[in-house]
Amino acid sequence: MKSMANIPAMTEAAEEAAASGTTAGTRLDRDSLLTAGMAVMGFALFLSAVWTARNEAALVPDGALYTARFVKAVACFAIAFTLRSHIPSVGKFFALGAGFVGMHLVAYGLGALMPAGVAEYLAASVISGAFSGIGEACVIVLFAHLFSTYAPRVSAVAIPVAYLLNEALYFSTLYLPTEAIMALRPAGKLLGVVLLGLCLRRKERLPLADNEYPLQYGISIKSAGERAITLFATHRSWALIIAGSTLFPLIFGFVAQACSRLSTNSGLYDGFNEIVALGTIALLVFYGVWRAGRLTFDELLYFSVPLFATGCLLLPAFWLADAPYAGMLVKCGYTVNQVLFWVLLAQESYRDLRHTYLFFGLFYGIYELTTAAARLTTSALYAEGGIDFTFMVYVALVALWLIACYGVLFFALAKRVARGRQGGGRSADAPVPDVEGPAGGGGASEAAVGGEEVPVRLVPEARRTLVFPDKLALVCERYGLTPREVEVLTETIHGYSMENIGKKLFVSRETVKTHLRRVYAKVGVGGKQELIAFIDRYEG
User: Which residue, among 212, 49, 68, has the nearest Cα to 126 in the 3D structure?
Assistant: First the structure.
C-alpha cells in the first residue's frame, strides 16, 4: 500500500524528468490499462449515442433535442455549484445518473411506439429529453472524474482516443437506416453506462497504478462556509474555463445551424468532412502522446483561432458557391477546441480532484448552453427570412473582431495563470512519484528509484501550492502519526468503511477504530469530518 505521508517528496530525477517533458512512474499495469480502455470505450459509446440525436434520420423532434440541451446545461451548472469543492459519493452519483438515463430510455421507447406528430408523441419526446439532459450531465461528468484520476500523460491520450472512437461511431450512423439508428441510440447509452459502472467498481476494488488517484479520494471534503463567488475570486483557472467555452461554441452553433437549415452542406454533416474530422482527432491523439500531459492553455488558441478565423473569413464567399470548406474549418476548430479543453481540464483536476465537478460542470454546461442558444437563434432568424449573403458578411466581420478580442483576453488570462504557477504550485504534468522514505524536515534521505540510490528531498514551499495530499502528509508528520495510523487514515479519507479497511489491512474492525481514535486524539479533533476540515485548512 502506498503511504500518503510520502506524497510531497519529489526526487531530483523526477524533477528533471518533468522539466524535460517526461513523467516518471506513470506506466499502467494490466488491470489499470484495462480499466482505462473500458472507460475510453464506454465514453465513446455514450457520447456517440448523444451526438446521433442530431442526425435527421434519428427522427428526434427539435423540442426534445433543445429540451435535452438546455436541461443538460442547467444540470451541469447545478453539479458545478453543488459539488464545487468536494467529491460526492461516486456510487450514489452514478446511481442518480443511471436512473435518469433509464427513465429517458423508457420514455424514448414509449414515444417510439406512438405515431409521429401526435400530442402524446411530442409530450413523451420532451419528457424523454428532460430525463436525458440530467442523465447525460451526470454520466459525462463522472467520465470526466474517471479520466482525471489518471496521470496527465495518460488522460492526454485517453481522451482524444475516446473522441476518435466517438467520431467514427457517429460517422457510421450517417449511412444507417432510421430503424437501425433508433435501435442503436439506446443501446449505445446503455452500454456506455454499464461500462462506466464496471470501471467505477474496478477502480474501487483493484490496486492503483503509480500516480493514479482513487475515485473516492477526498470524499465529503467541503470547506465550511465556502461560497461559489469566493472560490471564483480566488481560483486562477475558473476564468479560463468560462472564457474558453463561450465564443467558439457560439460561432460553431450559428454556422452549423445556418448550414443545415439552408442545405449548403457546409462541412458539418457530409461524409467527406466527417473523414476530415476523424483525421483531425487522430492528429490530436499523436499530439497527446508527444506532449505527454504538458499541454497548456496557450496551445488551445494556437490551433483553434486560425481554424475559426479562416473559416469565418471564407464563409461569405463559399456561402455563394455552396462549397463546404468554410464550415469544414469551423467544425475542425470546434473539435480541436473541445478535445483539448477536456485534456486541459483533466490536467487541472488531477492537481486537486475536489474541483473536478466544478471545472467540468462549468465547461460542459457553458458549451451546451452557448451552442444550443446559437442554434435556436439561427433557426428563428431563418424562419423570419433574415439570413442572406449580406447578413453572413456582417456575421463574418463580427466573428473575426470577437476572435481577435477574445485571443487577447485569453492570452492575458493564461499568462496570469502561468505567473501564478511560477510563484507557487507544482505542474499538473509532473505528478509526484511514490517514494518511500521520510518526508519531513526539509533534509535529504536515500531512496531507490529505477534501481539507483538517489537523494530524496521535499519540494520547497515557495515553489508549489499545497493541495490536499500535501496537507495530509504535513499533518501526519507534524502530529507524529505512525505508519499504520497513516494507512488507516488514508483509507478512511478515501471513503472506505472500517470493515473494508480491516479486510484490506488484515486487522479487525475494532483495531481500525482504535487507530482512528488515536489519530483524532493526536490531532485534537472530535471525528472524521472535523479532521478532514482541519487538514483542508492546514497551511503547514
Answer: 68
Residue type for position 460: P
- How many degrees, rounded to 5, is the angle at CA 346 between CA 341 and CA 349? 125
Phi/psi at 408 (nearest 5 deg)?
-60, -45
Question: Could you report the per-residue pLDDT of 197-256, keeping only the tens digit for each?
Answer: 999 988 877 777 767 777 765 444 444 444 444 445 445 556 667 777 888 888 888 887
Domain CATH code at residue 495: 1.10.10.10
Residue 347 has pLDDT above 80, yes or no: yes
Integer angstrom CA distances of residue 72 from 194, 251, 368, 538: 20, 20, 7, 36
SS (H, E, C) 327-394: HHHHHHHHHHHHHHHHHHHHHHHHHCHHHHHHHHHHHHHHHHHHHHHHHHHHHHHHHCCCCCHHHHHH
Residues 399 and 471 in one domain: no
Cα(152)–Cα(155) distance, integer angstroms: 5
Give the integer Cα–Cα distance in Å for 46 and 34: 18
Three-state DSSP at 455 gives strand
**Cell numbers at residue 355, please?**
474541483
Q: Are residues 350 and 263 in the same domain?
A: yes
CB 89: neighbour CB atoms within 10 A?
13
